[in-house]
Amino acid sequence: MPKTLLRSILLLPLMAGAAVFSAAQPPRHIANVSSRTGSAPVCVDVYEYDCVDIQPQFPGGDGAMVRFINKERRYPTQAYHEGIEGRVLCGFVVNEDGSLSHISVIRSVEKSLDREAVRIISNMPKWDAGVLSDTFVPVYYILPIPFRL
Q1: Spatial contact of 140 and 93, defined as CB atoms under 8 Å apart
Q2: Phi, psi of 17, deg, nearest 5
Q3: For labeling, which of 67, 74, 87, 136 is most exposed (least CB within 10 Å)?
Q4: Residue-level pLDDT at 30
Q5: What global pTM score does this model have?
Q6: What is the pLDDT of residues 16-71, one digit of tens each?
């Protein structure tokens, strides 16, 4: 299976239902990524989740990640009172050092829930980075953050 390199991330609502691109596709330019401060666009080269030898992982595994999300999540008051619920689909890059960057909402539920999902991911500790050929590489990761009443 060829190792596919994605170039830049942002216009990912186009991928709303897909977790990753097909590994057989050649490298492709997705979009420019703007920093959260609104400065000039920044391009990064990242690998698809399923094209690395070792996938990035939350410290302690999936169970620890679910516990972290449940502990960290604070339901926005207005969304709670209006009975709004759903799953916010977020994408982000796990960098070579395990830090998270380029956090974005791929599929929105409601603005306050979207902001809360981004806040949760922003507060995550460093992950175990992805590895390709014994080298740490940045990997694009998609994570749903559920909001249920």
Answers
A1: yes
A2: -90, -15
A3: 74
A4: 35
A5: 0.73
A6: 333 333 333 333 333 334 444 455 666 668 888 888 999 999 999 999 999 999 99
Residue with tokens 């009172």: 81
Look up tokens 């186009």; give the residue: 14
From CA 109, how far away is CA 19, in angstroms rounded? 18
The answer to whether 6 touches 140, Cβ cutoff 8 Å, is yes
How far apart are the C-alpha atoms of 24 and 22, rounded to whole Å?
Answer: 5
Q: How many helices (H) and strands (E) does the chain have?
A: 3, 8
Q: What's residue 41's pLDDT? A: 64
Q: Phi first, then psi: what are they for 147, rounded to 5°?
A: -130, 110
Place of tokens 């992950």: 127
- Which residues are CB-neighbours of 62 under 8 A, at least 6 positions away? none
